[in-house]
Amino acid sequence: MDFNNIEELVVLCKSGDERSKEVIAAEFTPYIINLSKKCYVGFYDFEDIKNECYFTLFKCIKLYDTSKHRFVAYATNALRNSVNLLIRSSLNKRPKDGTQTISFDSNIDEQSVLDDMNLEDLICNKLILASLHIQIKKLSLEEQELIDYVYFKGYTFRKFAELKNISYYKIIGMKDRILDKLKASTRKTPSTCNKLLN
């Protein structure tokens, strides 16, 4: 991706040139496809996630300050944040008790997500999410509050430290311990997936 060329295209696009908008979309398509393939968002299929990314990209073009000369970094960051927001809102909508989070659609073979994602990967992603929900429930109340406040509600660790009147560095230490616990517990899930699917 030629960053300078992208900057020029964004300027043209902001002046109403539709052709440059198409070229920008084509330049970002590999990144958007890669990003959309890597995540599972409940209630969204692959095409929905892709469309959400294009919507975010075009919004970036509209809001971008051309004097900054950092459109690629600005847009890729916005795209990641957009997908993370979808994931957070999806997790907030799903039930929180273990296997209830796994819902198999009877029309699953008709979903276009399966054109780009292996069925085994899809099932394993759901099992990992289910396992993660169970492990979060095993954390202390304060640890659960931290996870909810930062990862689901989107606030910062510094804001949580202020809210709880605790040192910021203590909160970062707590975050590292929580992530270590969750990584250790979900590390077993892929091997479980392999046993179930083989």
From TrEMBL:
Domain of life: Bacteria
Protein name as annotated: Sigma-70 family RNA polymerase sigma factor
Native source species: Clostridium zeae
